[in-house]
Amino acid sequence: MTTPAVSVAMSVYNGERFLAPAIESVLAQTMDQFELLILDDGSKDSSREIAAGYAARDSRVRLIARENRGLVISLNQLLTEARAPLVARMDADDLCLPERFEQQLAFLDANPDHGVLGTRTTDIDEHDHAFPLDTGEHPLTYEAFLHNVECGGPLLAHPTVMYRRAVVQAVGGYHQAFRHCEDYDLWLRLANSTRIANLPERLLRYRHYADQVSSRHALEQQIGVAVSSVAYAERKAGRCDPTEHLTALPPIDALDALFGRTGIARQVRGQAARALIYSRAEMRGGAFDMLIEHIAEGGAKLDLWRTVARLARFGEPRRALRLAAALAGV
Fold first, then answer.
1. What digits encode the pLDDT tens for the residues 28-43?
2. Which residue ranges make up each domain of the chain?
3. Fold of the domain spanning 6-214
């Protein structure tokens, strides 16, 4: 078979609701020298049958079906299965614009020093309606990317990314320890070995809905983001990254021992808790207790008074009073 220019990597787990439109958006690309690899990760719904139907009708589609092993293992398997030197990520609930691959391929051909390229997005809800967000734009240049790493700004939308497979494999692919933020950790590990950028065009419609992974695992995700930021700082300072060979992150209270100095657990707890103060679900869950502990450890208090009012609006008056007492030092 002729080697494709791009391998599209899509992992699916119980994705029947949005899968067909996502596949259709890939097959409608203006460049057609690609293979679409769909890995069904042990779905219990009709995802496998939907993907199999497309594979039977279009030779560009290849279905890989097996038992459930999780997203990180699936993404690394797709890297191994890919035949093209470039891999385009795609999620089973988003929508590509037709010119996405063509524009990304042209940029990477013209800029061989860039190993990773995303695009900006249009955010939509489960009904394809606009989903307003105020999280800032993805950075267009490598320099702006590095600036956002330092200041905590957005980096890349994972399902928009096209990258050079060899570059990603050279840093070990996706790491299991950073489950639910495996992409963020990967971008930080790649930051010192290749240039990373985003196209200004909005070439993917990024879907938001209540049952997506980022909503169900927000606390674990933000803890992982905070730990990966610490690991990035270690590498930047020329120190050993103790997370490199982990298959799971230790409890937060064990992070000082892992990194060999005090203050890491406090830093991670504070960063993760503050990242979730606008989440109704997490402020009703474990993130609230983490926030209280962050305050007890000496975290800044003044800017958290608005969170008291927010908890009251969330219908959590007892937690609002408990946070107010912690802020007041009672």
1. 999 999 999 999 999 9
2. 6-214, 217-328
3. Spore Coat Polysaccharide Biosynthesis Protein SpsA; Chain A (3.90.550)
The answer, as to whether pTM is greater than 0.90, is yes
Rounded Cα distance, 200 and 206, in Å: 15
Listed in sequence order, the residues at least 6 apart from 288 whose beta carbon sits closer than 8 Å to its beta carbon are: 282, 319, 323
Cβ contact 153:136 at 8 Å: yes
Question: Does 135 score more than 90 pLDDT?
Answer: no
pLDDT at 212 exceeding the cut of 70: no
Cβ density class 226-252: b for 16+ within 10 Å, e for less: bbbbbbbbbbeeeeebbbeebeebeeb
Non-local CB neighbours of 277 within 8 Å, separated by 6+ positions? 283, 287, 291, 304, 307, 310
Do residues 97 and 122 touch, judged by C-beta distance below 8 A?
Answer: no
